[in-house]
Design a protein that fits this description.
By secondary structure, the chain is α/β, with parallel strands linked by helices. The chain has helices spanning 10-15, 23-56, 73-84, 86-91, 93-120, 138-146, 149-165, 191-200, 224-230, 232-240, 242-250, 266-269, 278-283, 357-365, 382-390, 395-398, 409-427, 444-469, and strands at 61-67, 168-174, 177-185, 287-288, 291-297, 307-313, 332-338, 345-346, 349-353, 374-380, 435-438. Strands 5-6-1-7-10-11 form a six-stranded mixed beta sheet, with helices on both faces. The chain has a three-stranded mixed beta sheet with strand order 2-3-4, covered by helices on one side. Strand 8 (345-346) and strand 9 (349-353) form a beta hairpin. The termini are far apart. 31% of the residues are buried. The protein binds guanosine-5'-triphosphate and magnesium ion. Guanosine-5'-triphosphate (GTP) binds next to helix 3, helix 13, strand 4 and helix 15. Magnesium ion binds next to helix 3. It holds the Pfam family G-alpha. Keywords: GTP-binding, Magnesium, Metal-binding, Nucleotide-binding, Transducer.
């Protein structure tokens, strides 16, 4: 087999073999090209078969995940993967390790920033009053200096992830620090496989890599895993330092409630042999860019063989224009509203309260294109909501209409549920049932149960509709 290389076509020119290629090299190259072509033909054939099966078989069930940024859409998608594609989900552990490393470094970065702010006595965006904090002693300053290499790890991991995954660092005006950039990734770019290989030096991902080998190269001092391991004790000292805790408190930085919080698990996640558990992967935070489609085939039960397509979208305001083309032809939308955010301002607009998920919900229920679509509401992050209420944070302070009702979870959740139900009833263009779940999608057990119920409900509706059509 030989290729024609067209001199006028830059791609063809770039692919041209080196002019000084030996006979053996040429044979090896041709053999590898033939193998690649064979693989590509097999994949094409498989895709063609899939398309044909889909055309012949019952229509795929399509579910769109919607909600503001950090509401838990991608985490819900991970639950679908655990349920229907556990093998593939677990084979991606190595890539999630890098994301978790990035999350850890980011939390440390936030603490170091808080110390710098206190040193400069600069006003913080959310400080209750000016920074009359504890004094920062030489020990803490030394710790800060020793942890500075971590900032390079952050840059390294970000550039690696963006290189393979068409990612982008978007400025996210987080409550706690303006202009703090957060890495966002479009997962259609197969960043996971590519990144796992980059991290592990593997050539091909094996079919069952649930027992992926540790990803650090013990001999490479620049390997992020090694740097994190070397800084582990200092990070633990920093996180448990009383002055730091006081500073964070004064600056109203509740790291425990933030996305991608792993500081309570530092010895484990910084160990050289660390492999993320399912729970870790669910808690790992990587912002989504664009819209990605995920296909699952139901492998058991009455709906065996049925294909599901789940669409995950970026929830950041800049991403929302991309949602509309997907409104058509969905069997259901799972809308996530993070009710724990009642006391925070919206990440991307510090003037808007996070509960302005309510506004987004109004826009969705009243949308003309969605008038016949099943809407399923997840009032999410109830674990954080419960912790906040238990800590004495009052809903009525932020949602004035709550007035003097009891500040416990039962009453607040019923109130919020009614609020969302009322909007659905009032604003929907056609009458529609109100499906609502109180969720914590980082809890796989309860989420599995909810997703199974949704699956059954949609299958029943789908069957009923097909029966009506015949
Ligand atoms: N404690 C807790 N954390 C949650 C829950 N749901 C999601 N999270 C965490 O919140 C963070 C954000 O969740 P994502 O699923 O990435 O949010 P998203 O809606 O996909 O956000 P975008 O991609 O920016 O639109 C992640 O670190 C999750 O682990 C929950 O119910 N409880
Ligand atoms: Mg996401």
């Amino acid at each position: 087999m030989s290729h024609e290389y067209n001199e006028d076509d830059p791609l063809s020119k770039a692919l041209r073999p080196p002019p000084d290629e030996t006979q053996t090299e040429c044979e090896a190259r041709l053999a590898s090209e033939a193998k690649a072509k064979e693989m590509s033909d097999i994949i094409d054939e498989e895709l063609e078969k899939q398309k044909l099966a889909e055309r012949k078989g019952p229509k795929a069930i399509k579910v769109l995940l919607l909600g503001q940024s950090e509401s838990g859409k991608s985490t819900t998608l991970k639950n679908f993967q655990i349920l229907y594609e556990p093998k593939a989900f677990r084979s991606e552990r190595a890539s999630w390790r890098a994301v978790i490393q990035l999350n850890v470094v980011r939390s440390i970065h936030l603490i170091l920033d808080a110390i710098t702010r206190a040193q400069n006595n600069a006003p913080s965006t959310t400080s209750r009053d000016s920074l009359r904090g504890p004094s920062i002693g030489p020990d803490l300053l030394k710790l800060k200096l020793r942890l500075s290499p971590l900032l390079q790890v952050e840059q390294f991991l970000t550039s690696r992830l963006t290189a393979v995954g068409s990612g982008e660092s978007e400025p996210t005006q987080l409550t706690y620090s303006r202009n703090f950039k957060e890495l966002a990734i479009n997962s259609t770019m197969q960043w996971k496989g590519a990144f796992a290989r980059l991290m592990t030096g593997e050539k091909e991902s094996s079919d069952d890599s649930s027992d992926v080998e540790p990803v650090s190269d013990p001999n490479d001092p620049n390997d992020p895993g090694n740097i994190l391991h070397a800084c582990s004790d200092d990070m633990i000292s920093l996180w448990s330092n009383e002055v730091v805790q006081e500073l964070l408190d004064i600056q109203n930085l509740r790291l425990e409630e933030m996305a991608g919080f792993f500081l309570d698990s530092l010895p484990r996640v910084t160990s050289p042999n660390y492999i993320p558990t399912d729970d870790d992967i669910l808690r790992a935070r990587l912002k989504t860019l664009g819209v990605t489609e995920h296909r699952f085939t139901i492998t058991h039960g009455a709906s065996l063989g049925r294909v599901w397509k789940v669409f995950d979208v970026g929830g950041h305001r800049s991403q929302r224009a991309a949602w509309v083309p997907y409104f058509d032809d969905m069997d259901a939308i799972i809308f996530l509203a993070p009710i724990s955010c009642f006391d925070q301002v919206l990440a991307e607009d510090i003037k808007v309260n996070r509960l302005d998920s309510v506004k987004l919900w109004s826009a969705i229920v009243s949308n003309e294109l969605l008038k016949n679509t099943n809407l399923i509401l997840f009032l999410n992050k109830i674990d954080i909501m419960k912790a906040k209420l238990a800590a004495g944070i009052k809903l009525s302070k932020y949602v004035v209409s709550y007035a003097d009702r009891p500040n416990d979870f039962d009453h607040t959740s019923v109130y919020l549920r009614k609020k969302f139900a009322g909007i659905s009833k009032e604003k929907s263009l056609l009458p529609r049932p109100f499906y609502c779940h109180l969720t914590s999608v980082t809890d796989t057990k309860s989420t599995k149960y909810i997703l199974s119920n949704i699956k059954d409900m949609l299958m029943r509706r789908n069957l009923a509709e097909s029966a009506l059509l015949t």
